[in-house]
Specification:
Strand content: 25-35%
CATH class: Mainly Beta
CATH superfamily: Hexapeptide repeat proteins
Mean pLDDT: 93
């Protein structure tokens, strides 16, 4: 693992072999696979799983409950969401861990997510799929499908040439 001293990498992070982390990353309670690259200003929360040979570009937010399989690309500023009903307080008291329902998200092997996309919770992005920049993904994306727009809709299906 290489990374500048000002990154926050908690002791409970499981780092694979030859992981590269660029400055100002915040990682805690997660696992990052072999040969993966984490850009600056990225946060990866507890319980998130990042596979081997994944590239996560700057300013991405990978929250608890997200699994990114091997060889995926996560563009700049991609945001994952893990709660369908977020609230700051209930009955006048701030919410805490356990006061909400975690919704899991899965990004399958070889998928790519363009910059600025928002991935809502509870979806699966299929193997080899491509999510266009700025898309809002609110339902599953089939394998080898290109989606774009708000909400994201299929534009093409089949093997994507990259």
């Amino acid at each position: 693992m290489t990374g500048p001293p000002f990154s926050r990498i908690a002791p409970d992070v499981a780092l694979g072999r030859d992981v590269r982390i660029v400055g100002w990353a915040n990682l805690y309670g997660c696992s990052i696979g072999d040969d993966s690259r984490i850009g600056p200003f990225v946060e990866v929360q507890k319980g998130a799983v990042v596979g081997d040979r994944v590239k996560i570009s700057s300013h991405a937010f990978i929250c608890e409950g997200v699994t990114i399989e091997d060889e995926c690309f996560i563009g700049h500023g991609v945001l994952f969401i893990n709660d369908k009903n977020p609230v700051a307080a209930r009955e006048g008291r701030p919410t805490k861990d356990g006061d909400w329902r975690l919704e899991r998200t899965l990004v399958k092997k070889g998928a790519a997510i363009g910059s600025g996309a928002v991935i809502l919770c509870g979806v699966t992005i299929g193997e080899g799929a491509l999510v266009g920049a700025g898309a809002v993904v609110s339902r599953d994306v089939a394998p080898h499908t290109v989606v774009a727009g708000v909400p994201a809709r299929a534009l093409a299906h089949g093997r994507i040439r990259r």
